[in-house]
Amino acid sequence: MTAQILDGKAASRQIKDELTTRVATLRAAGVTPGLGTLLVGSDPGSQWYVAGKHRDCAEVGIESIREDLPEEAAQEEIEAAVRRLNDDPRCTGYIVQLPLPKGIDTNRVLELVDPAKDADGLHPTNLGRLVLRTNEPIESSLPCTPAGIIDLVERNGISLAGKHVVVVGRGTTVGRSIGLLLTRRAVNATVTLTHTGTTDLSSHLRSADVIVAAAGVPGIVKAEDVKAGAVVIDVGVSRTTDPETGKSKVVGDVDPAVAEVAAWISPNPGGVGPMTRAMLLANVVDTAERVLAAR
Ligand SMILES: Nc1nc(=O)c2c([nH]1)NC[C@@H]1CN(c3ccc(C(=O)N[C@@H](CCC(=O)O)C(=O)O)cc3)C=[N+]21
Question: Which residue numbers belong to the known binding site for NADP(+)?
Answer without folding.
Answer: 169-171, 237
